[in-house]
Each structure stands twice: as structure tokens, then as C-alpha cells.
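Usage

Read records sequentially. Each one opens with the input sequence:
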Amino acid sequence: MRFGRPGRRGWRSAGRPLRAGLAGLVLVVLVGILAPWIAPYDPLEQLDAASGRHRPPMTAMAAVRLAPEGWQLAERVERVPGGLVIERLGESRVESAANVLNLTADGVADRRLFILGSDRFGRDVLSRIVHGARISLLIGFLAVAIALVIGVTVGALAALGPRLVDAVLMRVVDGILAFPALLVLIVLVAFFATGTGTLIVLLGCVAWLGIARLTRAELLSLRERDFVIAARGLGASPWRVFFRHLLPNAFPPVLLQAVLIVGGLILTESTLSFLGFGVQPPAPSWGNMIADGRHHLTRAWWEGVFPGLALVGTVIALNVATDGLRDLLDPRHDAGRTPTVETR
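and closes with the structure output:
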């Protein structure tokens, strides 16, 4: 596939899905970047696990800070002379004003609103989803950056090197592709110490195979083009031909392939976290949040459904944006269309 500048019809037909996909992707990226300021609460905060567990969406509770016990969440509080009536876990009791550290004239100064509900430890689901977006996107983009470096290097060596190097490298790629990627990752993660940095490196070391094959195919088709032959005839060095003529023309489809791989890597990371091999609790990840919520779908569906929707929406936005950009840059996008006659 050759890529060029988009035509007017390309902008019209590919622009709408492209804008929709980019808007969704930008939204998720901004949420991840601004997570500490967007999240209502600390994603690891367990203010009162006993009273705050499995609260449905849009539940508002009073946060009472008691001198000996610390924070407690109450369904209802009422200010009475000399103290505070607290209704919590189906029981009602009166605390003296001296024991309530955040007492006000109307009750208490602090509240907790679980917009998307709470999990089994009383942690805010929305805050964990927001911070999970940062972790998932960080893993996806850093892993694909590693895969891009390895894939382009291997693909360039295979396409421009001796035939023996090409044969050896491609057979190695074919051999690795013969194994299921998820199985290879589980084995590698089980062998190495589990951690976010290790997971990023391992994902990048598995995801470069498709990039290498695409880079090789693009460079093989470009190296016999007239402008490349002309550059060689004018005495340009192999390095200059590669970096000035071959790589810039081969990189756009490779970059689109890499962006498309980001969605797959986010899904892979979520799958590993779901199986217990990815991001480890209590750090929030969409995968381990779905894993925690799968046991409570009948009584606390929000614990697993909302992280799943965030994951699906992000992957769809990535795929739609990549497909729209590919259609926009493909010169064959306008081919075969019947021209329209504009009347004034």
C-alpha cells in the first residue's frame, strides 16, 4: 500500500470516523495524563471497607472522622445537642461532639460520593478507572515504542542485508509467530519478576514481529523505485539513501500498524492482569479490576462492567482512528469513484 497526501473526497469520507476515533483517543489520553486531578479520590483509599464495600453508583455517604477509630462512612448523620447520631451498617448510635473531629452545625464536613459505585474494599471505582487509564495507556504506548524500534531494525536488516541474513531473520520471525503470543507472555512473565517495567519490556519484545515483516515488505518494494536508483546513481551513500529516501517513505504504514498494535497490547495487558500475571493489586488496572469484579457480577455488577466499558471504548477508538487515518492517506481511496458535477 502506497501512502500519499489525502484528496478532497478522502477528507470527506474518511474524516468523520477519523475525527470520532481521534476524539475518543484524545479523551482517554487526557484522562490518563490528568488522572491525579480528575479522580475524585485516591484510588487506593479504603476509608471504611466494612461500610463502603459494594455501594451502587451515585451513592452518597457521610464521612465521619472519629478521634479513636478514624474514618467511618455512614448512611445518615444527624446533629443533636452534644453530639452526632450516626446510622451505619443498619445500626444507629450517638457519638459525643468531642469524639467527632469534623463536626459542623449541620452534621459533618466530609462526604463521599461514589459516582460509579465502590468495590469490595470500599474504594471508588471511578477513581480506579481514571488511574487505570494512565497505567494501561503507558504500558501500551511504551511497549509499542520498543516494538517499533526492534521491528524497524530487524525489517531493515532483512530487506537491505544479504540474502542469508534475510532468510535467517524471517525464519526466526516465522518460528516465534508459530507460538501463541499470550502463552509466550505468560511463560516469560512467570519466569521474570512481575512488575510494570518488566511487563512493558516483555510486551514490546513480543509485539515487534508484525512490524518487522511490514517494514521488510515496504523496503523491498521501495529499493527498486526510480528515485532510489537515481539517488544511488548520484553517489549517495547507503546510509543516506536509507534515512533520506527509504525510511521516510516506508514509515507511514509502519507507524499506522504500530498504532493499531497499541489496542492489542492494551487488551493483552488487561488479559494478563485478569489472569494475575500483569499489573499487581492494589495498583489499579482495567484488567485486574475486571478480574476482581467477575465474582460479584450478580450483586455488584458495576465493579467489573465499568472498567470493561472503558477498555472496549479505548480499543474501539484506537481502531477507528487508525482505520480512518489509513483510508485518508491511501491514494487508492479516491480511485474508482464517479466524479460529481457541482452546479452553481
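Summary fields computed downstream for this record:
- The radius of gyration is 27 Å.
- The first strand starts at residue 59 and ends at 66.
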